[in-house]
Amino acid sequence: MKSVIALLGRPNVGKSTLFNRLTRSRDALVADHAGLTRDRIYGHVRDDNAQFILIDTGGLTNETDSMSELMRKQAALAIDEADLMVFLVDGRAGLLPADEEIARLLRNVGKPVLLVINKSEGEQRELVAAEFYSMGLGEPVVISATQGRGIDRLLNHITNILPETLPELIVESEPDEEEDSTIRLAIVGRPNVGKSTLVNRLLGEERVVAFDAPGTTRDSIYIPFEKDGTQYTFIDTAGVRRRSKVSEALEKFSVVKTLQAVEAANVVMLVVDAQEGIVDQDLHLAGLIIESGRAVVIAVNKWDGLEKQEREWVASNIERRLPFLTFAKTHFISALHGSGVGLLLKSVKQAYQAALTKIPTSRLTRVLEDAIADHPPPLVNGRRIKYRFAHLGGKNPPRVIIHGNQTEATPQSYRRYLENYFRTTLKLHGTPVMVEFKTSENPFRKRTHIAADKQADKRQRSPRQPKKK
């Protein structure tokens, strides 16, 4: 069992920068902005000197607003899970009263605390650490997370406190993508549609900060989860607004991480607000999901607060404005009260299995022949397009490659017909199907006259006789 280490401290002391440095990733969003991190972010540290699980937390403050209270609750949960608390302070700002208050809080926990002084660029280590000895947390470790100074010394201190963080002699290899059966589920939608509330409802705990204000979630939070023997990784993403309304650089980074989460997912759950119906931004997000080729499940949230007539209008509005997502299962839920949430993972699992299904070439070719028999392809310059056989060219999404003659002239309408026919016949619910065409090359196209082998041999053996007068 790996040790768990939590990063704690005031806002903007460099916890997320140190998290990315130790995990060698960009999982934590970093910017010169206080209070950027709000949720717990987990990462694996795999180094020659140590191996452990690292938790990045939001900054601890004395503010009494609701958001700060929720962030303190997330930090308290990280402290409960941690075997070691790394208390990060700002070496340039010096010792502040807020740091002393956090130190008193951590001393009362009863777990080991390691004091780390960050932002020591260009300063002598002894001078930076001098005033922090008064906190009574032992000898501090002076580092620079931005430049990577003192990181090896920090890892050595961690292994001295927790010897079980030492790396094992035999390291298990990472599972291949083909063998990894974990379902990666990205939950996307506009701001304030209830994505974080839905994640907490599915998990059964307050895992991420859920607050009644747009833009609460800023990072893409990856959360491992298991239910009924199936492994999931939930990805709670930041809400995506229209491009014209995205002005802050911080929000632009959040949108980029949301799009990266969609690319990394196997299944995408599109969450929409039933009280507002399908708006243009929902259509834009649905188009991005279709372009990525990911399997889709639609969750219509806040369904419990609607009257019967309003529910009928919302259902018809979804059917009218999302005709290109008819293959996706639609659930009408209430993330706050839990109604309808229990059926979501069943549809997610079904869409995942359809997206990664293995279909033999013989089966695809028979389905292609049935599709042509029901509706033959159109004529091109007086000649019929001829399809010979089909095979599976990729998964997630299923990619059907059709070989034949003049296939490049296939109209878009017939391509959509084939996609729908393959999806319906093969029962690939919840995933798009991509159809590609390959035209067979004519090997004799560039040769004007071809003599048979016997004719050529006969001409060489019997020279031409002169004509008689």
Automatic annotation (TrEMBL):
Keyword Nucleotide-binding (UniProt): yes
Basic and acidic residues bias locations: 450-460
Example of a GO biological process term: ribosome biogenesis
SUPFAM superfamilies xrefs: P-loop containing nucleoside triphosphate hydrolases (SSF52540)
Gene3D superfamilies given in the database record: 3.30.300.20, P-loop containing nucleotide triphosphate hydrolases (3.40.50.300)
Alphabetical UniProt keywords: GTP-binding, Nucleotide-binding, Repeat, Ribosome biogenesis
A Pfam family assignment: KH_dom-like
Residues reported to bind GTP 1: 9-16, 56-60, 118-121
Region (Disordered): 440-469
Domain EngA-type G: 3-166, 183-356
Domain of life (superkingdom): Bacteria
One term of GO molecular function: ribosome binding
Similarity annotation: Belongs to the TRAFAC class TrmE-Era-EngA-EngB-Septin-like GTPase superfamily. EngA (Der) GTPase family.
HAMAP family: GTPase_Der (MF_00195)
Subunit structure: Associates with the 50S ribosomal subunit.
Record's function text: GTPase that plays an essential role in the late steps of ribosome biogenesis.
Name of protein: GTPase Der
Organism: Methylophaga frappieri (strain ATCC BAA-2434 / DSM 25690 / JAM7)
